[in-house]
């Protein structure tokens, strides 16, 4: 739980102060999600401890990228931003990203 907390706060603080726009990375994130799903499908047929560790690390990294993108969308200082009416959805997206980081670090699928 502590590692998820540290990772989440570090990503949120970095996304607040950086000048690089991560909101344009949604296409890359979609491709990485499809790759992670295919890797998870492969891992169901070929069980290995190292594959489980790799799957957990890749999932945590991917949802860390999603957390950074969602935080920058919520702030609205870059090219893509959310309307003020969508702040509840953005808060739910950030909450879901943090929960999924926690679950991938635990090793649960």
TrEMBL record:
What residue intervals traverse the membrane?
A: 28-47, 54-75, 87-106
Pfam entry (one): Bax1-I
Q: What is its main location?
A: membrane
Alphabetized UniProt keyword annotations: Membrane, Transmembrane, Transmembrane helix
Q: Kindly indicate whether the keyword Transmembrane helix belongs to this entry.
A: yes
Q: List where in the cell it is found.
A: Membrane
Its record classes its membrane topology as: Multi-pass membrane protein
- State if Cell cycle is listed as a keyword: no
User: Which GO cellular component terms are attached?
Assistant: endoplasmic reticulum; Golgi apparatus; membrane
Output one GO BP term: negative regulation of apoptotic signaling pathway
- Protein family per UniProt: Belongs to the BI1 family.
The record, for PANTHER family, names: BAX INHIBITOR-RELATED, PROTEIN LIFEGUARD 1 ISOFORM X2
Q: What is this protein called?
A: Si:ch211-284o19.8
Encoding gene (name): si:ch211-284o19.8
């Amino acid at each position: 739980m502590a590692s998820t907390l540290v990772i989440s706060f570090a990503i949120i603080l970095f996304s607040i102060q950086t000048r690089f726009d991560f909101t344009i990375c949604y296409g890359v994130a979609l491709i990485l999600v499809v790759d992670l799903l295919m890797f998870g499908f492969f891992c169901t047929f070929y069980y290995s401890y190292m594959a489980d560790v790799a799957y957990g690390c890749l999932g945590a990294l991917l949802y860390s990228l999603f957390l950074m993108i969602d935080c920058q969308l919520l702030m609205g200082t870059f090219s893509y931003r959310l309307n003020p009416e969508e702040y509840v959805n953005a808060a739910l997206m950030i909450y879901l990203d943090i929960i999924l980081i926690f679950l991938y670090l635990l090793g649960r699928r």
